[in-house]
Amino acid sequence: MRELKAEVIGIGTELLLGQIANTNAQWISEKLATRGISVYYHQVVGDNPGRIQEALTLSAARADLIFITGGLGPTDDDITREMMAEFVGRPLIKSEEAMKQLAAFFTARQRSMSENNKKQAQVIEGSTLINNGVGTAPGMIIPWQEKFFFIMPGVPNEMKMMMKETVLPFIRETYDIDDVIRSKMLRFIGIGESQLEMEVKEIIDRQTNPTIAPLASDGEVALRLTAKASTIDQAERLIKDVELQLIERVGDFLYGEDGDSIASAVVKLLEMKGLTLSAAESLTGGRFSDWLVSVPGASQVFKGSIVTYQNEIKTGVLEVPTSVIASDGPVSHACCYQMAKRIKEKFNSDIGISFTGVAGPGRFDGHEAGTVYIGIYQDDEHYAVEKYQFVNNREMNRTRSVKKGLEQLYYLLSSMK
């Protein structure tokens, strides 16, 4: 059987305005991938007749299965069913089954059905109704020129129910799909995207199945391995073979896989080592603590933190010596060292970490925006303070500081016996 190509179209001006995220496309792609169906394109189009028709024409020219979400509501700007009917050249007709489902929905909620809701009972002639068990708008399966359009509401829980209960079983019954697709993310930190790609370029160049795709994010990089095979076990074996080759080249920078984060990796290592951590934060303003406590189980290893944003809190609460602030300033190696040491002692933790610097956008105390010090203290013989120079972007500097702090902790903990 030839490979099935799929496309996902999200309809709604609110998607283009950024008022809501298009999570539907991500979810649909993930579910199709596990069934061996490749999604080649995502489109997002506003509630505009001409642009919707363009999107439908383009998708029909390059995909076999087209999944459309959004634009099935009762208001005038919900025009997906009308545009789809126009595209396939068939009339909209009233569905008695859809009307019964609508009536039952409103009766169960002791609400009256307004006149415009009846619009949702219109379906395209020749389509198959997709029952909506949690909302008002039914979906449709529309055959057209050896292709299928699947129209579903944009509300995620309604779309997901339709996909699970109707659409995916329909595809499985209609096509003899044997292949499955499996993906695995390998997550690295402490190495840049260009360096990582250079180190594994030979492996990437010779691979066709699995494919290897580098993906960069702020302060870290990932490699996505994607394999296609006739069984799940076979796909996972293909991935494992390549994974071992990659680890041989760049395994020193590997901290996790799939849904792991550098914060969860640090928490896991603290648990394994039986160690506790506390934090003193200035420019990060509690962001480090927030990332850490977002990890389940962090309460077993993280004692707490103090946000020492102003000098009087550094000296009065954390008890950084006033002489250090006077001689070296709050953005300095000496202050960062004292912050890490004092928080460790005050909270009686095994390790203290501190953050101080200039988030920006302007200079402060003679330092450029992006000047950051991060300190880690265990005892007088085991401590480190690192200086970084980031960019002139306040939010980016705060996030990078947190990630660098977690990176320092990860490699420290990894090196411990």
From TrEMBL:
Residues 7-174 form the MoaB/Mog domain. CDD domains: cinA (cd00885). SUPFAM superfamilies: CinA-like (SSF142433), Molybdenum cofactor biosynthesis proteins (SSF53218). It comes from the Bacteria. HAMAP family: CinA_B. NCBIfam families: cinA_nterm, molyb_syn, PncC_domain, PRK00549.1. Belongs to the CinA family. This is Putative competence-damage inducible protein. It comes from Streptohalobacillus salinus. The gene is cinA.
